[in-house]
Specification:
The protein has 666 residues and is an alpha+beta fold. Strands 1-3-2-4-5 form a five-stranded mixed β-sheet, with helices on both faces. Strands 17-16-18-19 form a four-stranded mixed β-sheet, sandwiched between helices. It is 49% helix and 10% strand.
């Protein structure tokens, strides 16, 4: 092992994975950028994340190799960035790589001038040329020679690319909020891409489809609803779902949802919890509630930090092999389950020939004999037994940093999980997470993005402040403590002040005047998580309902105006923003309960609300704070818990029975 390099003092698990490379890595910062300028050397920027399989491959093949390190150290300033810590850099330079090559991914490899302008880029490079891919060492040598002998050409290319990136990032805002006809166009694009056999909305690799499904839940026809249900079932039946431990892998490498890329991300699982909870409310299928429950339990068991936050990811690899932790052979199952092994293998597709590498099988449900009856209660016990045995294996690596944005999504998941499933553990986890975010990541004026081991750093970006604000609204609606609504309001005022574009509308992802950023972006397209603009619009719309602050709603509508022309051209690229647009188009529904929060009659009314799919409703309880706008003047009738329901700014007479409330909500 080489002696430690400059990454050894980092908090990022991804950077620490490279701390003993012979490459003279710098973390992104003033020291590295100043050296590039002083020595007039190009920057080699490598961006990845700890759970990235091909990042590990490139490290083993290249960054641990003295021959590669010799070339990198001699001719470049090598900088390593964790994309999860600096999404602004990742977004900017990913745009550059996609412009240069037509594709992107991680590890991302970008060459920059000392003034941070990109001039060449790609993703994974093998050490030597193979399979049509240029070798990393010859490529480095070629770029070094170009920098030495054809500097003017390199500078011209960097300038030309930078101009093009700025052109692509420039928005031509619309003049109004897009109309409801846009929903049909988005749904039609989903119909055209739908896979009727296996579900999902495109070819392999198949990624989780929560944004498409949530739009269908809100706006889809009966035929569209069938597409959503098939996709929900197929994602769960396949190997992308962890049938022993709960939770979902990042994506399926095939079209059948069978073989996953085994890394597990907090953001996927938090969003999928919300998706399955909404499906349970909409369709009443108990299995959707159970999938959400098992996923929440996975997060509590395997991803929770002792201080209350949630870690970022679990790796795909263990003991140097992708998926080794998760797969089984019949013999391994028999060793644990004995006489029940054959039934279990038949139920979960574990065969002698296997469906994965080395004759092992990824557990799944769809190949079981439909004519054979399985005792699901017994299988649940066997799954628990096999999981406990699996836990004795070497676990995949974990990225144990806590990210504000992803924990905002997790906060929504646990708050909504408590509302819909009624499990007190989820309430406790949500409150503990809210306290963690307020205590560890907020200093009274700044929300920090990154926390690990008691240390925090990097002021939050738009997605951080918006996701946490949205999570705090969900937490308020779960536990009715007004301090969470006030914290959400403070965050909303903060991100409006730091990031809003007062001219064109919408929000930039980062603050103005950031010296280490070539230029700032206004994030548009929803990706693995909703873009910061989507999260901001949703948070502002919901806060505007609760607080009756019209300026918050106006800022949200500014997002739709800013991106309206883009949404018209490519509606499927904005599926989560479409759900926010649906929120804006819906007539407001406000429900307030007057009564004691711990009383049975109040709980009965709340239960009726929580079991219904009402994504546009604002829910409050007078006991939280009688001075809140929705609560003003609301009192019990005849000493009974009382529901006040207002639709489209018109309020019905207060009701005290569950049956009367059902009538109003229907």
């Amino acid at each position: 092992m080489s002696k430690p390099n400059r990454l050894a003092g980092s908090l990022s698990p991804y950077l620490l994975q490279h701390a003993h490379n012979p490459v003279d890595w710098y973390p992104w910062g003033d020291e590295a950028l100043a050296r590039a300028r002083a020595e007039d050397k190009p920057i080699f920027l490598s961006i990845g994340y700890s759970a990235c399989h091909w990042c590990h491959v490139m490290e083993r093949e290249s960054f641990e190799t003295p021959e590669v390190a010799e070339v990198l150290n001699a001719h470049f300033i090598p900088i390593k960035v964790d994309r999860e810590e600096r999404p602004d850099l990742d977004d900017l330079y990913m745009d550059a790589v996609q412009t240069l090559t037509g594709r992107g991914g991680w590890p991302m490899s970008v060459w920059l001038t000392p003034d941070l302008k990109p001039f060449y880029g790609g993703t994974y490079f093998p050490p030597q040329s193979r399979g049509g891919m240029p070798g990393f060492i010859p490529l480095l040598e070629r770029i070094a020679l170009l920098w030495k002998d054809q500097r003017a050409d390199v500078a011209a290319q960097a300038e030309e690319l930078t101009v093009e990136l700025k052109r692509q990032a420039a928005l031509q805002a619309g003049t109004g909020v897009p109309g409801e006809a846009l929903f049909e166009r988005a749904l039609q694009q989903l119909r055209e891409g739908y896979d009727p056999r296996w579900g999902g909305f495109g070819p392999a690799p198949k990624f989780p489809q929560q944004m498409a499904i949530e739009l269908i839940l809100r706006r889809g026809t009966e035929t569209d609803q069938a597409m959503a249900r098939r996709t929900l079932d197929a994602m769960w039946e396949g190997g992308m779902y962890d049938h022993l431990g709960g939770g979902f892998a990042r994506y399926s490498v095939d079209g059948r949802w069978l073989v996953p890329h085994f890394e597990k991300m907090l953001y996927d699982n938090a969003q999928l919890v919300g998706c399955y909870l909404a499906a349970y409310q909409k369709y009443g299928e108990a299995r959707y509630a159970e999938i959400a429950r098992e996923t929440l339990d996975y997060l509590l068991r395997d991803m929770r930090d002792p201080r209350g936050g949630f870690h970022s990811a679990e790796d795909a690899d263990s003991e140097g092999e992708e998926g080794r932790f998760y797969v089984f052979t019949p013999a391994q199952v028999e060793e644990v389950l004995r006489g029940d092994a054959a039934d279990f293998c038949a139920a979960f597709g574990i065969t002698a020939e296997g469906n994965f590498e080395h004759g092992a099988s990824v557990l799944h449900r769809y190949s079981r004999d439909p004519k054979r009856a399985f005792d699901e209660a017994r299988l649940k016990d066997l799954r628990a037994d096999l999981r406990l045995a699996r836990d004795r294996r070497v676990r995949p690596g974990k990225d144990d940093k806590v990210l504000a944005a992803w924990n905002g999504l997790a906060l929504s998941a646990f708050a909504r999980g408590y509302q819909v499933l009624g499990d007190e553990r989820y309430r406790e986890a949500a409150v503990a997470l809210g306290e963690f975010l307020h205590r560890e990541l907020w200093d009274g004026t700044t929300l920090f993005r990154v926390w690990r081991g008691g240390q925090r750093h990097t002021p939050g970006f738009l997605e951080d402040e918006a996701a946490v604000a949205l999570g705090m609204v969900d937490l308020f609606e779960a536990v009715f403590d007004a301090k969470w609504l006030r914290f959400a309001e403070a965050l909303a005022d903060r991100f409006r002040g730091r990031f809003e574009d007062p001219v064109e509308g919408g929000f930039f992802s980062s603050e103005e005047g950031q010296a280490d950023l070539l230029f700032r972006l206004k994030p548009a397209y929803d990706n693995a998580i909703p873009t910061g603009n989507t999260l901001a619009a949703l948070a502002l719309l919901r806060l505007a309902q609760h607080l009756e602050r019209e300026e918050l709603r106006a800022s949200a509508l500014g997002v739709f105006k800013a991106f309206g022309p883009f949404m018209q051209r490519a509606p499927r690229a904005f599926l989560a923003l479409m759900a926010a647009l649906d929120q804006a188009h819906r007539e407001p529904l406000e429900v307030v309960i007057a009564g004691r929060m711990d009383a049975e009659d109040a709980a009965a009314l709340l239960s009726e609300i929580h079991q219904r799919f009402l994504p546009h409703r604002a829910l409050s309880m007078v006991g939280a704070d009688p001075a809140l706008p929705l609560n003003a003047g609301r009192v019990t009738v005849d000493g009974k818990a009382t529901a006040y329901v207002c639709k489209a700014h018109a309020c019905a007479a207060p009701v005290t029975t569950r049956e009367a409330l059902v009538s109003l909500l229907s």
